[in-house]
């Protein structure tokens, strides 16, 4: 068994993770049904409930601020925490005590319907107040970690500055030793840990908290696969808020590079979306749904069993992306289609789509590199797009759901990627017939005629010169936003990261090819 442990830090991460866990729950099969292609033991842990019955809960830790969990409680139908009696709470005090409680948050009609086993009503941006409003999963009580020092959306003590997150981690870790209290019990349950997947916003205080958390993990556990999906807000905000977020993002980008084996920055920006996407950029429920389609699809090979060609480990994918260098930051994108439009032909090959090769033919040296409709890599300025030149791609990992490509094409590409002496980008492709399910908790952000219940997804991670250009844009912005005490170290560090991202590439080679 190769377990994966998930860490979730903050509201944005928990919105995304709720979609992710709902999808994992949908893969479960029951007696009389074919076995699921997903190995649930990788992401879920067995346990014993309060009544002695067997339970199955996610291998995850969920950190959020006070008020961020909505109606989700640590106690649930599977686990009832042992409550201390009043005498224990009173200790030596013999007088009267009075409890002060905030008014409880009313459960959403959707959650009430799930509890009663009835058909849930359709969700909307008005009815989704918290990520727990569309949650399908029971969590182990130890997975719920509420940070009581700060309150969600507080105007008096906002949890916005990167340094605030670092200070909070230091204070909590000094008091509790967070790894021993929270993470180590999950790790000790694993027979052979495949890796950690970390979801966190990187443009607010959670970026600082997560950076410190990963630093402690590196000190305690040494090397390992640690994939960070860093979430950056794509909405246009007032100038002061944008400047603060950019400074936070620059600090996260620099700090995470030392401790994340792969960092995938994600940001949903309304511009340039295809016609089949209809998302409200102001709704975390909507934006996280698109991010979840990418994140859940691109990591799907790490949870599969059965078909050897479709499966892969985090380590295998990481080796392809790194491409014998120090490229730890990857761009992310995906495309979606109605699976009926991708039915293979009689000879077993999938129909060719010009978007899959960006309009180039098989005579072109970069015919192996495919493109996607939805780009989730954060861009900070028009300079990062470098009009008139196509980014040079070093490596690419592609996870296909549905019949996007023929088996021969996939095998040829993967064989070439294993050849260390082969020229050109290294490409690793994994294709599964397990489609992306559209659940009742998933918003109508991907719209196709006929409203199919499942969709074909092509998800990609790439290392390219686009990453270096983006990091340099962040470094230029940081020079005027970060305090003088830290500016030199952070900006020089970002400049070094950009150089590592394009190590071994000579721009003149591409210029010669274009002549």
If you had to describe this structure to a student in words, what would you say it looks like?
The chain is of the alpha/beta class. The protein has one domain: 3-Layer(aba) Sandwich (Rossmann fold). Helix content is 32%, strand content 17%. It is built from 13 helices and 14 strands. A 6-stranded parallel sheet has the order 5-4-1-6-7-8, sandwiched between helices. Strands 9, 10, 11, 12, 13 and 14 form a 6-stranded mixed sheet that branches. A hairpin with a 5-residue loop joins β2 (44-48) and β3 (54-58). α6 (205-221) runs parallel beside α7 (239-256) and α7 (239-256) packs across α11 (465-478). The chain is globular, with a radius of gyration of 23 Å. The N and C termini lie far apart (51 Å).
Give a short overview.
Belongs to the misato family. The chain is an alpha/beta fold.
SSE-based structural type: alpha/beta
| Average residue pLDDT | 86
Main-sheet strand order equals 5-4-1-6-7-8
Number of helices: 13
Within the CATH hierarchy, at the fold level, what is the topology? Rossmann fold
Ranges with pLDDT <50 over ≥5 residues? Answer: 82-90, 352-367, 382-388
Task: Give me the oligomer status.
Answer: single chain
Distance between the termini: 51 Å
Q: Please, what is the CATH homologous superfamily? A: Tubulin/FtsZ, GTPase domain
**Could you say how many structural domains there are in total?**
1
Function: Involved in the partitioning of the mitochondrial organelle and mitochondrial DNA (mtDNA) inheritance.
Keywords: Mitochondrion
Pfam families: Misat_Tub_SegII (PF10644), Tubulin_3 (PF14881)
Protein name: MtDNA inheritance, partitioning of the mitochondrial organelle
């Amino acid at each position: 068994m190769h377990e994966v442990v998930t860490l979730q830090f903050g509201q944005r991460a928990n919105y995304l993770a709720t979609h992710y866990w709902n999808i994992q729950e949908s893969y479960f099969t029951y007696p009389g049904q074919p076995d699921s292609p997903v190995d649930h033991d990788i992401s879920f842990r067995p346990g014993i409930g309060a009544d002695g019955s067997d339970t199955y809960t996610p291998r995850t830790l969920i950190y959020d601020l006070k008020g961020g969990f909505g109606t989700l409680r640590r106690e649930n139908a599977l686990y009832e925490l042992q409550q201390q009696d009043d005498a224990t709470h009173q200790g030596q005090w013999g007088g009267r005590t009075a409890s002060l409680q905030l008014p409880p948050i009313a459960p959403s009609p959707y959650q009430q319907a799930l509890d009663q086993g009835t058909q849930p009503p359709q969700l909307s941006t008005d009815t989704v107040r918290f990520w727990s409003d569309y949650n399908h999963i029971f969590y182990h009580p130890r997975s719920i970690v509420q940070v009581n020092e700060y309150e969600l959306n507080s105007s008096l003590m906002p949890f916005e500055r990167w340094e605030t997150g670092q200070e909070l981690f230091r204070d909590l870790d000094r008091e509790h030793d967070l790894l021993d209290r929270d993470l180590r019990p999950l790790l000790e349950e694993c027979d052979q840990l495949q890796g950690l997947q970390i979801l966190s916003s990187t443009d607010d205080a959670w970026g600082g908290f997560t950076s410190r958390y990963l630093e402690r993990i590196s000190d305690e556990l040494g090397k390992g696969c640690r994939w960070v999906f860093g979430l950056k807000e794509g909405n246009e905000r007032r100038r002061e808020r944008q400047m603060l977020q950019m400074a936070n993002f620059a600090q996260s980008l620099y700090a995470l590079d030392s401790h994340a084996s792969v960092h995938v920055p994600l940001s949903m920006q309304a511009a340039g979306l295809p016609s089949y996407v209809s998302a409200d950029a102001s709704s975390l429920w909507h934006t996280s749904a698109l991010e979840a389609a990418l994140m859940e699809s691109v990591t799907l090979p790490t949870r599969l069993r059965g078909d050897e060609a479709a499966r892969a480990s985090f380590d295998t994918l990481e080796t392809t992306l790194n491409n014998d260098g120090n490229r730890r930051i990857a761009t992310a994108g995906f495309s979606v289609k109605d699976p009926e439009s991708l039915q293979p032909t009689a000879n077993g090959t999938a129909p060719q789509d010009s978007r899959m090769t960006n309009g180039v033919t098989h005579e072109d040296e970069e015919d192996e590199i495919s493109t996607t409709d939805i780009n989730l890599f954060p861009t900070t300025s028009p300079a990062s797009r470098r009009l008139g030149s196509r980014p040079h791609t070093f490596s690419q990992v592609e996870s296909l759901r549905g019949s996007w490509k023929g088996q021969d094409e996939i095998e040829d590409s993967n064989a070439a990627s294993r050849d260390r002496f082969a020229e050109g980008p290294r490409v690793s492709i994994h294709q599964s017939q397990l489609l992306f399910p559209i659940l009742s908790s998933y918003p109508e952000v991907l719209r196709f005629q006929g409203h199919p219940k499942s969709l074909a997804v092509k998800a990609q991670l790439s290392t390219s010169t686009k990453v270096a250009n983006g990091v340099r844009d962040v470094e230029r912005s940081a020079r005027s936003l970060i305090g003088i005490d830290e500016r030199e170290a952070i900006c020089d560090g970002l400049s070094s990261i950009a150089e590592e991202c394009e190590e071994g590439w000579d721009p003149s080679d591409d210029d010669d090819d274009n002549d």
